[in-house]
Amino acid sequence: MVTPLERFNLSCLRWYSVGMKPTSNDLRRRVVAARVEDGQSMGQIAERFRMPKGTVQNIIERYRDAGTVEPKPHNAGRKPAISGQALRKLERDVLQHSDATLCELRDRCGLDVSLVTVHNTLKRRGFTRKKRLYVQVSSADETSSQREGPGVKD
After folding, report:
1. What is the DSSP letter of 73?
2. CA-atom Rg of the chain in angstroms
3. Closest by alpha carbon to 120, among 110, 132, 106, 130?
4. Coil, helix or strand at residue 117
5. What is the largest CA-CA distance in the chain?
6. Cβ neighbours of residue 68 under 8 Å, at least 6 residues apart?
7. How far apart are the C-alpha atoms of 106 and 76, rounded to whole Å?
8. I want to staple 53 with a disulfide (CB 3.0 to 4.6 A). Which of 46, 65, 93, 97 is the partner?
9. CA–CA distance from 21 to each of 31, 74, 92, 101, 102 (Å)?
10. Neighbouring residues of 20: CB distance < 8 A, sequence distance ≥ 6
């Protein structure tokens, strides 16, 4: 049987389990086996494997609904507003028209996004605005400009 101290420790685990890695597949299989083959209650399984009852419930529901104990894949986040062919077209346009404004780039590529989105996309792709031109940053450019010093002009 579970002592009051162990029960307290189990309740504390619930607070620390947020943001942790998924439960191992081996443990998930043992949880399902305990429920299906042994007929144990969720509370008994939770105490047996020292895990929150909600986790046991989620594993059993996943097995019941999907027929697998594998964890769901993590959501990769929001999809980029500019991707694929539109992104390649934007990059080509920037290389051909390096003095174009964000508005001109957006209109030429036929994008239905904000100027901030165009700016952030170019920034993520390594383009930076230098004076009037968009250029891709390279490590060689950074080191040569640092060596030249502030008084030397191009």
Report:
1. P
2. 28
3. 106
4. helix
5. 80
6. 62
7. 26
8. 46
9. 17, 11, 41, 44, 41
10. none
Per domain, the residue ranges of the chain are 4-66, 85-148
- Pair 98, 77: CB distance under 8 Å: no
Q: What is the pLDDT of residues 78-118, one digit of tens each?
A: 888 988 999 999 999 999 988 899 999 999 999 999 999 99
pTM of the model as a whole:
0.45
60 versus 140: which is more confidently predicted? 60
Give yes or no for residue 154 having a pLDDT over 50: no
Are residues 31 and 56 in contact, defined by beta-carbon separation less than 8 angstroms? yes
The topology (CATH level 3) of 85-148 is: Arc Repressor Mutant, subunit A (1.10.10)
Taking 80 as the threshold, does the pLDDT of residue 1 lie above it?
A: no
Which pair of tokens denotes residue 38? 């042994």
Buried b (16+ CB within 10 A) or exposed e, 68-88: ebeeeeeeeeeeeebeeebbe
- Determine which of 50-59, 110-119, 135-144, 145-154 has the lowest per-residue pLDDT on average: 145-154
